Amino acid sequence: MSERGGNIYIGLMSGTSLDGADGVLVDFSGGKPQVIATATEPFSNAFRAELLALNSPGHNELHRAAQAANQLAVVYARVVNTLLGLGATQGVTASQVQAVGAHGQTVRHQPPHSAPQSSQPASAAYTLQLNNPALLAELTGLPVVADFRSRDLAAGGQGAPLAPAFHQGVFGRPDEPVCVLNLGGISNLSVLPPADTRAVLGFDCGTGNALMDAWCQRHTGQPFDASGAWAATGELIPALLASLLDDPYFALPPPKSTGRDLFSVAWLEEKLAAFPEARPQDIQHTLTEFTVSPCVVGVNSYAKDSKLLIVCGGGAFNQHLMQRLQAGLPQLRVESSALHGLPPLQVEAAAFAWLARQAMLGLPGNLPSVTGAAGLRVLGAIYPA
């Protein structure tokens, strides 16, 4: 294992789906990243509820946010320790791990286009990921890289999505364009051109699993609609879909990004007020179409020449959703990232391992063509061991 040298990193990701923390132990010594070990730590129901509540203003939220950040660091540390144990069975020692890339938990995301008044300066934009990287460094004894988004935002960018550069390295092809769709709580699309032909493009399409999961939890008690089976029993409500898609976000051109700040349960309930007699399963079916439609529009608008859509994130396991994507994009092969070297739940965590590596090497992690930043920037703050 010694030939791996300084190329071992850990990536930690807890996304807007709020289901837990995913971690990967990655070897970057070869041409493609090799995942040595994976680990997941689910969030408790109480912690998930608190994180969700912190997406909106509330009582004593500064104290509660600090406490949640501390709790998240403890969860992250458990994931890291599990990864180190698994890595040890393959000859990887903790001393070989160069750094841990810890994304944190996004609770607010207000990029430039989302400022309350369009006349506000760019300095009004911000993004906030709950995290305590100093505590994580203490708990693990490893260097930690965190706060990846704020430098891009400070440079006039969206701060998101940050994975397209990693997607290009892992899934890009020299002779044909490829699309990568991450279906987490929010959906984001990467358009990867053939090598050196044009710039990589990426943007948030809209909601991903967030609203479907919330609606399923409310009406079935389950945290998500396994395989989309419940949605498949429903029928489309065209007027509701049209109302959902009427949001101004969908008319914005890239670069653009979004989050629960916009696509919240409160936003959904306001839309549903006009449909008091709708069956819950019909709403779930319509929410699935609401996820699919902007993704289809994004591919058709910016990647007409692509023949392959690689899907990662939890939504890749939603068979009904995948079928609807394939129906909307008959000209493409819609396939799980598992068929292309990385299982769906490893991709985003591996991206933050890569971003940590970029920071430790003093290399840029953003793509101005994706985020709209003024230029390439080294992303992340480093907390030494």
TrEMBL record:
It comes from Polaromonas eurypsychrophila. This is Anhydro-N-acetylmuramic acid kinase. SUPFAM superfamilies: Actin-like ATPase domain (SSF53067). Its EC number is 2.7.1.170. GO terms for molecular function: ATP binding; kinase activity; phosphotransferase activity, alcohol group as acceptor. Catalyzes the specific phosphorylation of 1,6-anhydro-N-acetylmuramic acid (anhMurNAc) with the simultaneous cleavage of the 1,6-anhydro ring, generating MurNAc-6-P. Is required for the utilization of anhMurNAc either imported from the medium or derived from its own cell wall murein, and thus plays a role in cell wall recycling. Belongs to the anhydro-N-acetylmuramic acid kinase family. The gene is anmK. It comes from the Bacteria. It is an enzyme of class 2 (transferase). Residues 102-122 are annotated as: Disordered. The lineage of its organism: Bacteria, Pseudomonadati, Pseudomonadota, Betaproteobacteria, Burkholderiales.
